[in-house]
Design a protein that fits this description.
Elements (H helix, E strand, L loop, with lengths): L1 H8 L3 H16 L6 H17 L3 H14 L4 H13 L3 H14 L8
Length: 110
């Protein structure tokens, strides 16, 4: 996980995605990894994939987070942003409305 973060900070998003993908696979096969670990890894993957312009894949990562944590405001906002970027206005609005219900004072949503 640490290596992926270092690669991300160095703007090596492809390397960060590849490294985090391996870490995520290890997490899924481990009894030590918590659901919070997987949520964090998938958020990271979504951010890195977005930086690479792989919007559909990034959105899939945030949607996977929402399966685990339906109230995750960050993933709702990112899902809405990515949906909006790909022309899904009504669906994007749904993401933002859900996020706003959960965090009405969050300036990123408004």
């Amino acid at each position: 996980y640490g290596l992926a973060e270092c690669l991300f900070e160095e703007d090596d998003f492809a390397g960060a995605v590849a490294t985090m993908d391996v870490a995520l696979q290890q997490m899924m096969g481990s009894t030590n990894a918590t659901p919070a670990d997987q949520v964090s890894a998938r958020r990271f993957m979504g951010d890195a994939l977005e930086r690479l312009g792989r919007v559909a894949e990034a959105r899939q990562q945030f949607e996977a987070v929402l399966v685990m944590e339906p109230r995750d405001v960050y993933s709702l906002v990112k899902g809405g942003q990515l949906m909006s970027q790909s022309g899904g206005g009504p669906a994007a609005l749904s993401y933002f409305e859900s996020a706003l219900k959960r965090a009405p004072r969050n300036q990123t949503i408004v």
